[in-house]
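Re-run with default settings, no changes from the original entry. Doing this only to confirm the output is reproducible before filing.
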Amino acid sequence: MKTSIKSIKNVLFIALMLVPFLLSAQKVSDSIDVFLKNKIKQLQIPGLQLAVIRDGKLEKLSSYGYANLEYRIPTAKNTVFSINSMTKAFVGVAIMQLQEQGKLQVNEAISLYINDLPDAWKKITIRQILSNVSGLPNNIDQKEQLLGDGNEEKNWELVKQLPMEFTPGEKFSYNQTGYIIIGKIITALSGQHFTKFIEENQFKPCHMLVTQFGDSNDIIPNSAGAYSTIINTGGKWINNGKLHTVFADFPVFFRTATGIISSAEDLSRWLIALQNGQLLKDTSSISQLFTTTQLNDGHIGGFNSLTNGYALGWPTVVREEYPAAAPVGGMRSALFVYPQNNLSVVVLTNLQGSNPEWFIDEIASYYLPGMKIKNGFGLSPNMKLLRKELIKKGFKNTNLIYKTLKQNNKNFNLTEGEINAWGYQLLSLDKKEEALFIFQQNTMLYPDSSNVYDSYGEILETMGHRKEAIMNYKKSLLLNPDNTNARDYLKDKQ
């Protein structure tokens, strides 16, 4: 069969049209590699895996560094990591699968499905447990050791003797006891141990070939080492900056709370299956899974300013722009699903203390330019309005522009904290001149704050304006005699 000249031209035309797209995709991928290599160096992360899923397909899968430091074994795509409390996201899916089967309802009381409960626990709902607003006493101590030395029966009896921490739904408090109860419910309703139910209904249909339940006691092929710079001192976790190995012991009954070992590639298969209807048939099930639970007073609660809410086993990032469902685990691994943008990012590491949830948004920004800090991501609507006017009319006019916006909009208001935060954000982008005017504006708006003069003094010193820096540090110290930063600066400069 002859190939016509016209056909050849059409093929060449299509190929040429694809070149810019392919080059752009390669540029994004290379930029992420540079970003992550710098982040690995900065945070002393031994090994890291990345998966990016876009529009239902695996867009990028990469491995960096070392899975094992002792033997200098490189991280590979089949390396598996402990995902710690990210396990709870699988538990949330398992509960929604049982709801789709008609075996439970998440808004029903746990006492409908389990008998051996103290009276104070009986009205707590499955939803309240999954979202950590149950008020249950915790079955671990301040050093995160299981009560009863890891014995299931002892642990259960001891925790039942403890008082409730608060009225169910009153506030958010991260709790492991509830997930033990969820494990009991899954086992009772499915007719098989909860680990088996999750394996059969999630691992296998998603072809998660290297994923399993386990801990440091198990021999797991291609398992990454576990390292940490975090130590627990008197119930408080601190980062001392020194690497040491970590041993994880997760008894089987505790493995609804933590216990899955997986890879970024396997987790990408799971996320794709979850979002294409393979694991949950009803789209409303996924909506419920990702919906942040409200407290009794209508507010929400979560871990921090980023993961500021919690859904059904899934921590959530509640914000106007680019909200996310965001399981995190062991201060070492995280995945963010951006439902409105058909994008998911998985980062697994073998360093407790790397907290990848704090830089996953930056990875996502390579695919979603609106998430880039330099484009104003993370700023409040009022701050974005000020930013827009300053870019248009110049930062030298900051005070006049602010006053004009205030006069024209009675709801226009900026807190001291968000102005200060934007100033430091501009500094991180090497926009010192712009930052100078923002810090100066803060001193005009909040003249009784020690902190605004401290920050203004810092930028003045950075830019070589020592005389003005000294003057502002003196104002800061006058307003707050306990400001050691200002005192130390002035001691060196007097």
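The radius of gyration is 26 Å. The longest strand covers residues 57-68.
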